[in-house]
## 1
Amino acid sequence: MKVIDSAKDLAINGADPAFIEPLHVGRPNIGNREDFLKLAEDIFDRRWLSNNGPLVQELELKIAGFLNVKHCVAMCNGTVALEIAIRALELEGEVIVPSYTFIATAHALHWQAITPVFADIDERTHTLNPDAVRRMITPRTSGIIGVHLWGRSAEIEALQAIADQFNLKLMFDAAHAFGCSHKGKMIGNFGACEVLSFHATKFFNTFEGGAVVTNDDKLAETMRLMRNFGFAGVDNVIYPGTNGKMIEIAAAMGLVNLNAIDSVIDANRCNYQTYQRELSGLPGIRLLPFDETERNNYQYVVIEISAECPLSRDRIIDALHAENVLARKYFWPGCHKMQPYRELFPHAGLLLPTTEKIAGQVIVLPTGTTINAKIVAVVASVIRVLLQTNA
Ligand code: T4K
């Protein structure tokens, strides 16, 4: 592996890239292949491919058990899971969300003719600032969607207090937070319900997939109807539903990957700790910490490049990309600067100063089971040498 000691070793200065194959943020973690292939054979033998098959039911029970939550309703992806949860909660009018999130959080509302109202985030946690949420409440507000960004929990108690005071529904986009806890309780147990994503790039994947988890029996029942067109038995539709079903092969992947969760956490934690060690003391670089008193999946390694850093965030990204390290600027520039919200709310940024600041500072670095401490050390050395030599 290339050793990067001085400015001349950097690909941005003409040297060969550190990596021949690109290093992605979001390379899938894949469990035991033989176990997966065996489950695939069983699916073929059964000829039961979809529609609440046995593997989907088993996965739902296992996830509910893992999170210690009453119901897990598996879905075809996290975005549809968000849409179904929003509809089952009967949200309408305006719903307060962060702009600093993946675009699906906002789109899931817009698709249902609900206005996403963007509230600013807290600089320290990158999650909704409860004071900002209060400021955005209007007579049309029906709910709040908190996002546990990067797997770090949102300010759950403060948001719940606001929801209770103003009679609003509260749900969480927990797409990043599978396997994480808040005050010792697993994420999945907060608000009216929480939405998980099992996309290929997530800590835990089912190729594509997602789920809504809840302790509310009625809500779970409604969502089960909604994900299957509203069918309550053969020939009997009692609800305007959609098709949000998870397929059997996705559930097979989920069952296999669930068995591998501890090894994924170990790999992610080791990579995170290596970044922590190798990037420590660099001016203007802050690695977002994990609360070690909680359960974490360590899936998103996030650094902030502040004004004290001699180089801009984008210069560092360029240098990493030149080495074939495809670090990401998630979630730049913020939902409010993407369509259709940019056009619908051209002045939204005036109320989102922290969102705009953080979106301009963040870099998400590669981690996961396809890389290791040695690779992480090389990635970190690119940043270190770049800063030390001001290349
Ligand atoms: N809420 C939040 C907060 C979310 O972050 C997301 C999804 C959702 C809701 C919606 O859940 P889903 O409907 O997706 O279940 C990716 C993912 O597509 C998206 O799922 C995820 N968030 C988001 C944070 O990241 P992109 O467009 O930035 O990246 P993508 O999918 O092109 O992949 C990233 C990198 O991973 C690429 O460089 C290539 C690599 N990759 C990707 C795939 C799919 C692989 O190596 N193998 C693969 O199979 O959105």
Note: The mean pLDDT is 97.
## 2
Amino acid sequence: MKVAVYGLQWGDEGKGKVVSYLSKDFDWIVRYSGGPNAGHTIVKEGIKLVHHHLPCIDHGGSNRGYLGPGMVVDLSTLIEELESLERIFPGISKRFYIDKYVSLILPWHKLEESALEKAENIGTTKRGIGPTYKDRTARFSITLYDIENDTAFEKLKAMKAIKSPLVNSFLDEAALLKDLETLYNRLLELGVKVTDFVSIKEDLEKSSILFEGSQGFLLDINCGTYPYVTSAQVASAGISSFFSWVKIDRYIGVAKAYTTRVGEGPFPTEIKGEIAQKLRERGGEYGATTGRPRRVGWLDLPALKYSVIFAPATEIVLTKADVLSGFEKIKVAISYNVKGKRVDTPRGFGDFFEAEPVYTDLAGWTDLNDPLFEEFVSLMEEFTGVKVSMVSTGPETSQMLIKEV
Ligand code: GDP
Ligand code: IMO
Ligand code: MG
């Protein structure tokens, strides 16, 4: 079985939770895009873990995790992540594989990002993601392959010339190469296997694979609310860049019962004030990577419809509906008014900037057994044309309700 799990909103939908629930049934958990901008939370038997680079493998089990070649990786924070996991699960690093063709996030990428942010004001996670992908697209990035093959030094020297004056002030290419080699050796010491997408194909082919998406489709570089997006393809297009040979059996889209967004950019159903604060506090809506308070708002069905079509999703896992339990009234956007015209599905990302949401008011549910919650689920299903196959009922990995579809 080959399954894809990815977010359908602006990230933080609970992908970590959903992957950790499904994880034990898969041989491989594969991260295919993004990098440490992701913050995927797992709560298992009271222990809370946040993964940034590492796929959410079944910690107590024996399956393996693969950091695929479409990722951008910061070696020093990856090692910190592994070392902190090692303190709880000694030896776990040996179950991770990293592709030698990942692009490395280097010190100047963060500097470039700070400079860009002054002009663009995207509200990035400041992890150097955009500049690293930019260098990759410009055919100018450094990979683990370069460290292994002594091609890193020449490239670093060439970069120093190009990236001045930003970089010249601090970059000593020999010192940086030494740092990278030390980090690379530490990875090997921990037992992480360095592989590549061709060598690993045979093993993947005969195994069950769960592809773990990062970010959310509305942050996709091509289809998201550009320019307020991340720099990678976050859904099935991101998988197919290196894994086009995989036939995916299920495309599982993860969506919250409301909406959140971190950083700048359009957010038609955003709310502020007392209800927003209640939602933020009850939902613990603070960034898992940066700690920033997340912007919050009502469920946006037009946006969700856009995502299920283009991500795409063949089923939805609904998360965080428990956070709305006890709310007397709930709003759900069922269409947009764009310059006086009714729009049911955004016609590209431009509509998100102009959209005034048209809401329907629903009576809130007391708990997830309440028939009023069923009505909410039916509305989602009818509107999107996609069934809700599972309902997450809390942050714990085991808190999941399987629906008959
Ligand atoms: P991700 O980036 O999509 O993996 O999501 P995050 O981990 O950044 O944010 C989701 C937050 O909601 C985390 O704190 C999870 O522990 C929590 N969470 C996930 N699913 C549920 C749920 O169904 N109910 C509640 N109350 N919390 C949830
Ligand atoms: P997970 O995987 C929520 C947002 C940032 C910013 C924009 C660009 O946990 O859902 P970047 O650092 O990627 O260049 O920032 O994208 N962003 C996320 N928001 N969850 C994430 O990941 C995000 N990764 C990036 O806040 O608006
Ligand atoms: Mg997150």
Note: Residues 108 and 170 are 9 Å apart (CA to CA).
